[in-house]
Amino acid sequence: MPDLTIAVAKGRLQDEALALLAAAGAGVSSQDLSSRRLAVEDESGRYRLIFVKPADVPVYVEHGIADCGVVGRDVLLESGTDLLQPLTLEIGRCRIVVAARTGVSLNELGMFRVATKYPCIAAKHFGTRGQPVEIIELSGSVELAPGLGLADCIVDLVESGRTLRENGLKEIEVIDESTGRLVVNRASYQLKAKAIASLIGALKHETD
Amino acid sequence: MDQKTESLSKIPAGMRYYFGLEARLRRTVEEIGMSIFDGWSYEEITTPTVDYYSLFEHGMGRSEAHRAFRFTDTDGRLLALRPDVTSATARAAATLFAERERPLRLCYAAPVFRQQPQSHAEWRRESTQIGCELIGANTRTADLEVLMIASEFLRRLDLDGDFVITLNDVGIFTGVAESLRLDPTSREQMRQLIDVRNGADLERFLTPYTATGEARAFAQLMQLSGKRENLDLARNVISNEQSHAALDRLESIWSVIESLDLMGCFEIDLGDVARLDYYTGLTFKIYINGAGYRVGSGGRYDDLTASFGKAEPAVGFVLDLDTLSDLVHLHAAVGSSTLPSQAKLPELTTKDHEQEPLGDSRDPSNNRSELFIEALKRRAKGERVSLKLGR
Predict the structure, then answer these.
(1) Which of A38, A196, B22, B238 is the most exposed place for a label (fewest CB within 10 A)?
(2) Which residues of B fall within a CB distance of 8 Å from A188?
(3) What is the largest CA-CA distance in chain A?
(4) Which CATH number fits the domain that encloses residue A145?
C-alpha cells in the first residue's frame, strides 16, 4: 500500500511534472508510463500516481482521495478550492492575459464581451475594477472568438504568444503569472505529516 | 417521469435521509458524546432552531454568518436557520444564566444549516454539531479540560491512532503582525500565505520587513507541525512579547499532555491561522483518517460574550457528528467483516453519585498534571468529575 496518492494534471504540465517527481524519488517505470493505465505505482512503491484532467486535480485533492497533486496555478485560481500550496514548482511557466484584436481599444467600450476558459478569473479581474462585462465560457480555441465577432477580447493562458499573433490578437495586460504548484489536502498534511514532509523536501531540493 | 412527480420526489442539494444501521450508529455516537460531557459535569442546552440573523452576525462574524439560510419575520426582521449553536449559547450565558455560579459548563448536539459549505468536499447543508462550551474560566486548566473531553470522545469511539488534534495560539500570529506594524490588508495577506503553507511567497512577503534569515526561518516554522521542539524553534525565531506569552501558554498545555502520555493524539501546528478574528487564545483543529477535511475545531473566544453585554472568558469545541459516524462505520468495517453495532462500541455509564470537585481553585496552576491524571483515572472508571477552575 503506497504512503501517498499524487494526482498529476494531464496535458501541458504532465511531462515536466513526471520528470520532476522522478528526480525527487517518485519515478514511474517506462513500461507503466507507456501503458494507458490512469493509476500507477512508482518504482519505490511509496507513491501512487493518478493521471486526471487539470481541472479535476483540485477536486481529487480537496476530497482527500489524492493526498497531493501537481497542477498549474491557473487551475487553482479558477477553481477556488481550499487546498494547501506548500511549494511553487518551476515548471509550466505562463501568463494569464487579456488579449484583443490589434487596433481595438477596450477602454472606449462601455461594456464588452470576454470569451474565456477561465470565467471566474475573468469575472474577478474585471469585477475588481468595476468594468461591466459579459463572460462567454468556451472550452477551447478561445483565440478564434474575437476574429469571428463572438467577443471583444479573451482571457487566456499564454506561453510564447505565438497562437495569439497568428490569430491577429495582441496581449493587452497580464492578469497573473502561473507555474506548477504542489497542492496538499489539509487533513493529509496533518495525518500523513512525515510522508508529505519527505516529498516536499525532495521536490524542494530539486527545484532550488 | 412527468414534471410534477419529479418535483415531489426530488430533495434539495446538501440534504439527505438517515435510516437503518446508519441512523442507529449516529444515535449511538451522539449518546456516547453526551454521556462523556455529562461525565465532565456539562449540562445539556437546546437553542432555538430559528433565531435573529443579527445574533449570528455578532456571534460568528459576518463572513461566516452569511452562509446561513435567511428569511424574514412577520415584522420584517431578518431571521436565520441556526448556522451554529455557540452564538445562542453565549447569549444565554450573558442573559439567562448571568447570575449563575461560574464556570458554566454547557453541551449540545443539534443540527445546523449552512447554504454554502466551506469546502467542496463538505457537501451537506444540514449537519449535526456536537460540542461543549466552558464559560467563565480563563486558565490553562480550562483549556486542557475541553481538550481532554475531545480526546476522550474520539478514543471512546475506537479512533485511537487515527486522529490528531492540532494546537496553536492566535497570540503568536497577532504578536508577529503587530511587531511588523502590518496594516489590515497586509495582515490578511500574510495570514492567507501562512494558511495555505506557501513558504516561498511568505518569505518573499516578509523580506521588506525583516532580515532575510529571519524571514526564511519564520516561513519554515509556519510550515511545520510537530511536538514540543516547535515551541523551542519558535522562541528562537520570534522575539516579540505577545508571541512569547502565547508560546508559554501553549507550552504549559503541552507539558500536561506529555505527563498524561497523550503526545500521540496532539500536534503543535503554528500554521493554523483560520478565523483569527474569532479566537483569542488557544485554537485547535481535529483531523481523522478517512475524512479529507477537518472534522472538528475549537478554541478560546474571550470576546464573544461581550457582544451580549457580559464579557467573560470562554473555551469550547464542536465536532461534526455526521462525519464522525461515517468514520466510526468506516474504521470498524475495515477491521472486521461485520458491521459495527451498538454492542461493538464500549459500554459507558456514568455512576450517579456526585463526586467532590477536584483540584484547588485558589492555585489551579499548581500540580495541573496531577489534577488531570486523577481526573482521567476517575473517568476511566466511569465516574463523573468536576474540576475546580480559577477565573
Answers:
(1) A38
(2) 292
(3) 60
(4) 3.40.190.10
Contact between residue B285 and residue B296 where contact means Cβ atoms under 8 Å apart = yes
A98 shares its domain with A172: yes
Which residue range forms the structural domain that includes residue A198? 4-93+178-207
Put simply, the answer to whether B292 touches A185 (Cβ < 8 Å) is yes
Residues A135 and A186 in one domain: no
Name the pLDDT band for B343 (thresholds 50, 70, 90): very low
The chain A residue lying nearest B293, using CA atoms, is: A187
Written as nine digits, the cell of B224 is 511545520
Q: B74: Cβ–Cβ under 8 A, 6 or more apart, which residues?
A: none
Mark yes or no for CB contact B120/A88 under 8 Å. no
State how far residue B198 is from chain A, nearest Cα, in angstroms: 4
Using CB atoms and an 8 Å cut-off, which of residues 280-309 of chain B contact chain A?
A: 285, 287-289, 291-294
Mean pLDDT over each residue of chain A, to the nearest integer: 93
SS3 B282: strand
Question: pTM for this one?
Answer: 0.90
Q: Which residues contact A121 (CB under 8 A, 6 or more apart)?
A: A74, A77, A78, A96, A155, A175, A176
Enumerate long-range contacts of A144-152, CB under 8 Å, 24 or more apart: A145/A115, A146/A99, A146/A100, A146/A101, A146/A104, A146/A115, A147/A101, A150/A113, A150/A115, A151/A112, A151/A113, A151/A114, A151/A115, A152/A100, A152/A104, A152/A106, A152/A109, A152/A112, A152/A113, A152/A114
Is the same domain home to A187 and A86? yes
Question: Residue A14: which H helix or E strand, with range?
Answer: helix A14-23
B168 interfacial to chain A (CB closer than 8 Å): no
A146/A187 same-domain check:
no
CB pairs < 8 Å spanning A and B: 64
**A62-121 pLDDT per residue, tens:** 999 999 999 999 999 999 889 999 999 999 999 999 999 988 888 888 899 999 999 999
Question: Cell 484547588 belongs to which residue?
Answer: B360
Q: Which amino acid belongs to residue B223?
A: Q
Question: Which residues of chain B does A65 touch, with a Cβ-Cβ cutoff of 8 Å?
Answer: 292
Which residues in A lie closer than 8 A to residue B154 (C-beta atoms)? none
Q: Do A186 and B292 touch (CB under 8 A)?
A: yes
Instruction: Quickly list DSSP for A85-113.
Output: EEEEEEEEEEEEEEEEETT--GGG-SSEE
Rounded Cα distance between B146 and B134, Å, is 8
